[in-house]
Structure formats: structure tokens, C-alpha cells
């Protein structure tokens, strides 16, 4: 999992992952990940935005709600839960529900409804 997760943050990590190897420089991608922040650009987001949050979010706990609260554009917040079988990052056990929420939102948003 680490091989794929770190690919976007380090060319050596990406090249190692593509060779099926684990990279050895954790510092560079970790530093880049830590520096990521939407704070500087969130005010420029004007498009309607769907923010999904997942019960038991293991990678970015609390961040979806903070992003939603910071948005000034038209927005919707949806919390997917364990009771729905849709917990954890990107709701891996409930892809149909996840897609239903996203595509219903897109349909409503794009049709102006």
C-alpha cells in the first residue's frame, strides 16, 4: 500500500513502485504530504462542491468537515456511516452507495435541481 500511496509525492518512490520495490526515502514524500494545504486556495473555489466524509476515516480524519466549513461556494456535505456499510476512506465496502451519492449529486447539480 505504501508503494502506491507515496507515488504522487516522489519520483524515486514512483519509479520504485513501478518496479515492484519499496522506496527507501520516506522523508521527501512525507515532507511534501505534510506541506499540502488547501487553506491558501479554498477561497478561490467557486464551483459547487460535494464533500464526502466517512465514519472511521483513517487517512484524513476531520478534514472533510473543516473543508466544508471553509467553502464559500455552493456546497453539500455527506457523511457515510458504518450503519450504511460505507465507513472508512472512500467506503470500500459500499462502492454502490458511494457512487449513488456522487452521481445523484452530479445529476442534481448539473441539471440545476
Fold and architecture overview:
Strands 1-2 form a two-stranded parallel sheet. The radius of gyration is 17 Å and the shape is globular. The chain is built from 5 helices and 2 strands; from the N terminus they run H-H-H-E-H-E-H. The chain is an alpha+beta fold. The model has no long low-confidence stretch (mean pLDDT 87). Helix content is 41%, strand content 11%.
Instruction: Give a quick account of the main beta sheet: strands, pairing sense, barrel closure.
Output: 2 strands, parallel
Query: Considering DSSP H and I runs of 4 or more, what fraction of the residues is helical?
Result: 40-55%
The N- to C-terminal Cα distance equals: 40 Å
Structural class: alpha+beta
Please state the oligomeric state of the protein chains shown: single chain
Approximately what portion of the residues adopt beta-strand conformation? 5-15%
Tell me how many strands there are: 2
Task: Write the H/E string, N to C.
Answer: HHHEHEH
Shape: globular
Physical arrangement of strands within the biggest beta sheet: 1-2
Q: What are the segments in which pLDDT stays under 50 over at least 5 consecutive residues?
A: none
- Mean pLDDT across residues: 87
User: Counting H and I runs of at least 4 residues, what is the number of helices?
Assistant: 5
Evaluate the radius of gyration: 17 Å
Amino acid at each position: 500500500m505504501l508503494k502506491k500511496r507515496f507515488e504522487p509525492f516522489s519520483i524515486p518512490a514512483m519509479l520504485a513502485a513501478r518496479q515492484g520495490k519499496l522506496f527507501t526515502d520516506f522523508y521527501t514524500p512525507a515532507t511534501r504530504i505534510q506541506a499540502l494545504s488547501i487553506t491558501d486556495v479554498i477561497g478561490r473555489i467557486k464551483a459547487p462542491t460535494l464533500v464526502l466524509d466517512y465514519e472511521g476515516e483513517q487517512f484524513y480524519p476531520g478534514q472533510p468537515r473543516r473543508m466544508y466549513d471553509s467553502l464559500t461556494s455552493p456546497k453539500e456535505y455527506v457523511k457515510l456511516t458504518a450503519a450504511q456499510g460505507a465507513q472508512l476512506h472512500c467506503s470500500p465496502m459500499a462502492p454502490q452507495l458511494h457512487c449513488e451519492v456522487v452521481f445523484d449529486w452530479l445529476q442534481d447539480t448539473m441539471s440545476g435541481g
